[in-house]
Amino acid sequence: VPFRASRQKTHETNLIDRLQACAALDIDQLVVKQTFKAKTKMEGKTVIITGANSGIGKETARDLAKRGAKIIMACRNLETADAVKDEIVKESGNGNMVVKKLDLGSQKSIRKFAAEILKDEQKIDVLIHNAGMALAFRGQTSEDGIELTMATNHYGPFLLTHLLIDLIKKSVPARIVIVASELYRLASVNLDNLNPIGSFPAAYLYYVSKFANIYFARELAKRLENTGITVNFLHPGMIDSGIWRNVPFPLNLPMMAITKGFFKKPKAGAQTTIYLATSQEVANISGKYFVDCKEATLNRMAMDDDKAKKLWEESVKMVKLTPEDPKI
């Protein structure tokens, strides 16, 4: 009993620390203000968007479909995705949209999806890692034995990128866009516990996974330098996208404190993703972080190249890459 009481006290102290850190964040960096207005056309381009059936992903798919791109909607919920596809096709007049099953929390699903893409598609011009999830107090474990938030938000995109990289290389110039978050500033990546099963509260792991996204993006950009593939990552703004629907009081306080009076609709949240996927301004820029369609700064911890490299090496083990899998 004393051990449990001490552990609970630690959790409460950590939560208070996170709330205090949240209050110190720069609201201007969290709120989306710009709309990307350039009319860049995307005819002949093939774009994969994970989590394209709702929120920011849906609005990204809508915009890029209107620009003429072929959209591959990589989604877990096929029923919702099919309905969204029909909606966008009707609105945009672009029937070149495909829905495919992808559960980023399942390595089996990722490998099946990638195999279908490699069989059916001739190229990938843009890969957008948009899908994300957040849990509440109690975490869950994926079928691969990995904490589910980390499996979905970090390890899934890491594996998918590897499996598709050869086709992306054949499609150059190509782009990889990763949706991270300014909320990374509330977390750190513990290299001694990269499979944090049982962590409490589980919602904190969303912040950790967004930090991991940044390490992944920066290391990926270094490894793909001079290949014709750019890698950039972004904070979409604090968006009313539904990702926090499962997070109860008091873990939702950081988001409520920041977004009270500043909530943006998913269309606004999609603007920086669209900018990085289409703008000629960033055609030759790679490894950078963007907020509000502008390059932004990272904190010192996020710039730690050694930690990013170590996370990469451990992620290779976590997703069980084989000698036959593509290397980056």
From TrEMBL:
Q: Extract the Gene3D superfamilies matched here.
A: NAD(P)-binding Rossmann-like Domain
> What are the alphabetically sorted keywords of the record?
Oxidoreductase
Show the coiled coil region(s): none
MF terms in GO: oxidoreductase activity
Q: Which domain of life is it from?
A: Eukaryota
SUPFAM superfamilies listed in its UniProt record: NAD(P)-binding Rossmann-fold domains
- Entry-linked Pfam families: adh_short
Tell whether Oxidoreductase is among the UniProt keywords: yes
Protein name per the record: Retinol dehydrogenase 14
Natural source organism: Glossina brevipalpis
